[in-house]
Write a structure and sequence with these properties.
The chain has helices at 17-26, 31-36, 185-198, 202-215, 220-232, 236-245, 249-266, 268-304; strands spanning 45-50, 56-60, 70-73, 100-102, 105-107, 111-116, 122-126, 131-135, 141-145, 158-164, 167-172, 177-181. With 309 residues, it is an alpha+beta fold. The protein has a 4-stranded antiparallel beta sheet, with helices on one face. Helix 3 (185-198) packs antiparallel against helix 4 (202-215), helix 4 packs antiparallel against helix 5 (220-232) and helix 5 (220-232) runs antiparallel to helix 6. The termini are far apart. 24% of the residues are buried.
């Protein structure tokens, strides 16, 4: 009935050094002085999208930390988008990670639109750098393309994106044009591998990942997928090699722990015999020292009594 029900999923005030300093300063001011200072307000959403499962995806226009710029909100307004740890391949930071400084001020990514396709890939549009970033449900960046400029595939002022089938459409406000991006063969293989990878079917994803590496040996997510496949089959040495290529410290640590446990299990008899042998050697040395000590004690007393040995 067009009646307001409620709101949910509000953002928090980003705790930066300047905000912390202002909060401390406000404790020393009077109420009237505090009213004249700038209020702390949370970052605002710039666009939303509802997927087939009724989850609301939202993006913020600006973030000091480049974190939580993309949210997946459930019915309670809680962000349930999976975010990995900082020591894994994905860093939970979105957009262009290399800031450009102009007049001593960093230009950071500004997300103005978001779209989620049937496979769950999240595409966001960055108006600052004129790029489209695509992530999976684990916040791994899959693709990034586009730029600012006048050449083909570039924009002047991108403001919206949409998908029709496998084609992506980007609206340029300043030009008044729509640019259509089609899916390449490389992109199709990556998406196939990603779908299998995110479903936990690492062995089935192994061959598509290998095809990805054949076409682009610098695609780190392929090495992560291969590492997980080898990890599932307990081939920990190959898993460590793959995780090292992807600079995935968390995956490498888990593979190394698995390799250590596997080596101990395979060499348990040898380790047991080695420990037992070392124990016997220590006991023999200890007994020898006791015998030598007793012998020296007896011979010493014999010399004191004038006896010859």
């Amino acid at each position: 009935n067009n009646e307001f029900i409620n709101y949910f999923g509000s953002n928090r005030v980003e705790m930066t050094f300047q905000v912390a300093l202002d909060m401390l300063w406000k404790q020393l001011l009077t109420r009237e002085q505090r009213r004249q200072m700038t209020a702390f307000v949370p970052i605002e959403y710039s666009n939303v999208f509802i997927d087939a499962d009724d989850f609301i995806y939202a993006v913020v226009r600006f973030s000091e930390t480049n974190r939580e710029q993309i949210k997946k909100l459930n019915a309670m307004g809680v962000n349930i988008l999976r975010v990995p740890q900082d020591n894994s391949y994905a860093t939970a930071r979105y957009g262009d990670l290399r800031a450009v400084w102009i007049d001593n001020k960093a230009k950071v990514s500004t997300f103005v639109d978001v779209h989620v396709d049937e496979a769950g890939f999240i595409s966001v549009l960055d108006s600052t750098y004129g790029k489209v970033f695509q992530y999976d449900q684990d916040s791994n960046m899959v693709f990034a393309f586009g730029s600012l400029g006048d050449q083909l595939g570039a924009f002047r002022s991108p403001v919206a994106l949409e998908m029709i089938g496998s084609n992506m459409l980007v609206l340029d406000e300043r030009r008044g044009t729509i640019t259509v991006f089609g899916l390449t063969q490389f992109g199709a293989i990556v998406r196939e591998a990603m779908v299998l990878y995110n479903d936990g079917r690492y062995q089935e994803a192994l061959e598509p990942w290998r095809q990805v590496i054949m076409r682009s040996s610098n695609y780190p997510l392929a090495y992560v997928g291969i590492g997980k496949a080898y990890y599932q089959t307990e081939d920990y040495q190959l898993a460590m090699q793959a995780f090292r290529m992807a600079n995935d410290k968390k995956g490498y640590s888990e593979a190394f722990r698995g390799y250590t446990m596997f080596w101990v299990r395979e060499n348990f008899t040898l380790l047991t015999l080695s420990v037992l042998g070392l124990y016997l050697v220590i006991k023999l040395i200890s007994k020898r020292k006791k015998v030598l000590g007793l012998y020296r004690k007896i011979t010493g007393k014999a010399r004191e009594g004038g006896l010859s040995t």
